[in-house]
């Protein structure tokens, strides 16, 4: 049976701190609209986006008060009455991603860019997210979790994994090509190293510190560059790639600095794939060399329902493994501070069953 109240971490106002409440209401089955489902969460991981949202870093404003979180895994315990054509049923284990819902009927949705739908609902940004014991989501957009795939291991695939999987898929690279990954030791980045290796790419991991170095090298990065120690990142990359530069850069750094020099270290015909979301930074790229070198500059924003299934499928078969520490909801504020400082390697998963 579903309780009337639950524990939830609430952002009361933009830029404010998180308040963990133990008596937050849970919607009853009768309160669910058609198409909505209630998911009892097993766990949820923490994405850098959650703190951009909580601290108000972006030019878009998050709803407040709101529950953050968009990498949740749990079990469907109720489905709204009069729901037609539900691809999931009560008892199914599903994932909640950033894109909670989209209309599936506009030009963007029809073209497979569901994340660009004008009606998109965003978990932990425009609708309550997963830092709670129960979350209301949408039957047509929740992602089935493959049988036998551990919930904690699956959680970060719902945003970090899916996002870098899609970004690499559209990075215009082929097996054997060199990809540079600034931010490689973070949540998105360490999964990008693995999806890239899975796709047959050669990886240049850029981040900082001994722990992230060990993580990236352990995951098979072909070259490690510490951005705080390197005297010349462009020269390091050119040397490693036989003088030509890399075929692509998939930037998951949460800072504008992570984007600098990409046009310089990409080879002719190379692709800069923007993923990391510093709120105010601009891309400082030479127009002349972007044209002269035939560089493509692309943005990649999470992914659609199919990207989510593909990213999960690869992870469930052991192709990539999230490296995470398990912590509790009461630590969320501390986790945000640590992410801001850059001291977390890989991901943090919050266990919602305790
Ligand atoms: O759909 C999208 N495009 C999407 C989806 C999910 C997340 C975008 N994001 C965004 C987040 O909002 C955030 O801005 O991607 C960024 C990274 O998210 P994350 O992986 O969850 O953050 P993290 O774990 O803190 O990792 C960031 C890493 O970047 C490194 C840090 O050391 C950290 O390991 N980094 C920084 I900050 N500056 C760097 C630099 N100049 C750098 N690495 C290399 N060079
Ligand atoms: Zn995210």
TrEMBL record:
**Cross-referenced InterPro entries:** ADH-like_C (IPR013149), ADH-like_N (IPR013154), ER (IPR020843), GroES-like_sf (IPR011032), NAD(P)-bd_dom_sf (IPR036291)
Its EC number(s): 1.1.1.1
State the Gene Ontology terms under molecular function: alcohol dehydrogenase (NAD+) activity; metal ion binding
Cofactor(s) recorded in Swiss-Prot or TrEMBL: Zn(2+)
What enzyme category does the UniProt record give?
oxidoreductase
Q: Where is the Enoyl reductase (ER) domain?
A: 15-350
Q: Does the keyword Zinc-finger apply?
A: no
Per UniProt, which keywords does this protein have? Metal-binding, NAD, Oxidoreductase, Zinc
Q: Is Transcription regulation included in the keywords of this UniProt record?
A: no
One of the record's GO cellular component terms: cytoplasm
Q: Name one Pfam family in it.
A: ADH_N
Q: Which PANTHER family match?
A: ALCOHOL DEHYDROGENASE 1-RELATED
Family, according to the entry, reads as follows: Belongs to the zinc-containing alcohol dehydrogenase family.
Protein name according to UniProt: alcohol dehydrogenase
Q: Which organism is it from?
A: Tricholomella constricta
